[in-house]
Structures are given as structure tokens and as C-alpha cells.
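Forwarding the complex inputs:
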Amino acid sequence: MKILVVDDEELIRNVIKEYLLQEHFEVEEASDGTEAIEKVKESDYNLIILDIMMPKKDGYQTVREIKNIKDIPVLMLSARSEEFDKLIGFDLGIDDYVTKPFSPKELVARVKAITKRQEKSGNKYVFGELILDDVAHIVTVDSQELSLTPKEYDLLKYFISNNHIALSREQLLANVWGYDFYGDDRTVDTHVKTLRHELGEYGKYISTIRKVGYKFDYEESE
Amino acid sequence: MKILVVDDEELIRNVIKEYLLQEHFEVEEASDGTEAIEKVKESDYNLIILDIMMPKKDGYQTVREIKNIKDIPVLMLSARSEEFDKLIGFDLGIDDYVTKPFSPKELVARVKAITKRQEKSGNKYVFGELILDDVAHIVTVDSQELSLTPKEYDLLKYFISNNHIALSREQLLANVWGYDFYGDDRTVDTHVKTLRHELGEYGKYISTIRKVGYKFDYEESE
DNA sequence: TCATCTTATCATAGAATTGTGAAAAACTTA
DNA sequence: TAAGTTTTTCACAATTCTATGATAAGATGA
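Prediction (whole assembly, four chains):
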């Protein structure tokens, strides 16, 4: 569980960090919105704690840009309670907020609440003898562990979590490769090829949809 | 969800863009009608927000040309409320309008209303035992999945989403084949033939309208 | 009914899309 | 840095789809 703390005041960052470390969270820091966005692009966080009042780029703008890149939960720190309306009104996908001055206990409680939601989602997908265990980051077919490359794993996970849904190459590129991938569509084809091969008997469950893309399609009864 | 904002005033474009971005819409801009038409030819938008008052080519003319190319929902921005009559009178297939000066909230609300309609349409069409599930990209008749070619699928989808509406061959070519298809009208006939055949019992619901084209016509009670 | 116009059907060439293997490029790790 | 992986790109093969035009069938109206 990795958390990014964004605040221009070092003191506040340190306090938050201390408390989160005690709860065994991994913590990184950013002192302004721009730096935060950089970090978001480079690594995956489970939660971002963000101060509204910051020099240069304010919290609202930062959330907006972050949400555009990755859908990461955001907890806002706001100085005055009047801002709440604004927060809610803007509907930027903010998961929770805490008013300064906040009690560390309260903050930790809210952080735990949000991260718990996520843990639950880091699940296990079972399709007959094909199992993807996202917690262990392992895929097995007939109890045999496959050695997938990171891309293959991500692709399979995306397929699996969109069972029965037709996915265009663009969709796949955007969601598996990232919004900023500017390469050939056909890259998807190649990865689908290797993935099908890796999956052996289960490869057939990735079907081709001509002129559209691909679809993972597994029916429980099969 | 991609939206094209067409207005000659940059300020207005920016304001609209800001608010739409907050709602996670993808936004592109055009500063006049000609540019808008170019963009429409090149990519697919879910909605076009169009100012009536523009130099060179006015909003009315622009809508007309756009609607000729692709059937995309249009939301008009009009400066004076007197223009409404005109808007309605013209019957250009405008989906909604907002008067300047507009409150951003109102605009966003209207945009959401229109796009929601579309999202819903990306769903499931049910006509008795004929079902087109656009998410799974599947057509079933009597629970039996048909294997349609891409053109057949697109054609059927267009027919279905225009239930009860007579469609000329030109309309079909423009909307299913693309505005830039310069081929034989008869092509439609052939595809209608194969489609009817594929649909079996349900083929009869595509009726021929002599001298005009075809119509998908299914009544719930049947 | 017949002449005329419109639509249905068919077979098939060639267009377009996907599958595949191999090589190049980019990235990791020791 | 170099060896080893992983990812991307490319070119061509395999496959599937589409457009077309000729002809048959059907509809229309005098």
C-alpha cells in the first residue's frame, strides 16, 4: 500500500508520514502539484493525500490532472470547512476529505477506510482451471503456474476483469499500456498472440472481433 | 466521451472546456464552422457544442453540413432567446440549446443529459427473441448467437437503432459505410439480403420501401 | 396482360483485416 | 557494459469480408 502525500509545508508532510509509517504504509512525498503529477506518472499509488491550498498549482487543478492520468483515490486536506461545498460541488472524484487542523487518528482512520476498499478488490479470478491471483500476482492453468511477462499479465488481467465485454484495440492500449502510449495498434495483436499461446487450452477464450478488437469470453458453465 | 466545442471566441471555448474536463469528458476545439467540419470528418465525437453566431459560416449552416456527414448530437449556444423559434423552426436535428450567458452548471447538466442517452444506447437492444448486445458485440436470435460480419453487424445496429424509421440507401451508406463511400447503391441491397437471411425468422422485420430504401419495423406486441 | 421499372440473388475477384515469425529496439539486471 | 528479457515493429501469409455487375424475380401501372 503506497501513499503519496502532497503538501507544500514540510512539517505537515512529516507528521502525516510518521503516522502512516506506523501503520506500515509505504509513503512518498511531493511538495507541489507538478511534482505530484510527475510521481503519479512514474509509479502506482493506492492513495493520494492532497492539500487544497498550495502555491503554483492548487489542489483542484492537481486532482483534475491526476484523475486524467490514473484513477487513484484522493483524500483532500482543506483548511476551512466552507470549502466543502466546493469540493462536493466540483465532483472531481474525491474520495474523502479532512479539515485542518486534523487529528492524526482521524486521518489514519480515513486512510484505512479508503485502502480497505481497495484491498478487497485485489481479488482472485477463477475461470475453471484458469486462475489469476492478483494478490500473489500469479496465473495458473491446471495448477501449473505460468511465467507471464508484465505486459502479458496486465493484459490478461484487463481481459479477465472485463469478461464478456468487447474491447477495442484503443481501449486496450489506453487501459493496459497507458494513456500516453503512441504506438502501433497491432502491438495488441502480437501480445494477444503470445498470451493465447501461454494460456494453452484457455487461449481460445480470447476471441477476435473483426474490425473491433478482442474479447475475453468465459461462461461459468463451460 | 469526446466533445467538440465550436466557437469563435477563445475565452468561451476555454470556459466550456474547463468545465467539461472536470467531468472527465475528452474535449477538442474548433474556432469556426469549416474547421469543425474538418474535424468531424476525421474523428468521432459524441457531442458537438456549437455557437450560432460565428463569422464566415454560421451555426445553422454548420449543423446542416455536419448532419450530412454524421449523425452526431448537437447542442447549440445562442446569444438571444428570440432565436429559439428559429432553432426549432429549422428542425435541423438539434438536440438541445443553451442561451448565453449560460451558467456552467446548466451547460454541464445538459451535456450530461445528452451523453447519458448515448451511453444507454451502447447497451442492449431487445426485440422479442432478437437481441443485439453492443457491449459484448453479439447478436442472438432464439438464444442462438449469429456470426455476423462487421458490416452486417453495423448495418443491423443502425437499423435497430432506427426502428420504425424509413432509411434511404444514401442514409444507410452515409451512416454505416461512412460519408466518404462512393460506391454502388446496390451494395446496400446485397447486405440487406444477407442480413435478412442471417436473421432467419426475424429477417422479415426489415421491410423494403420501394423507391426509397429499407426500414426495420418491430412492434413490441408482436 | 404486358412493358417497364425496381429489387433480390449470386458468384467471385480483390480489398481489408488478422495471425505469425523474426528482427529491431528498449529495457533490466547483474 | 554486456547478457538476457521484454516489448515493439515489420513484412508477409492466411483468412475473411465486401463490392460489383449480370441476371432473375418481382412490383407497378397503363
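The CA atoms of residues 45 and 212 of chain B lie 29 Å apart.
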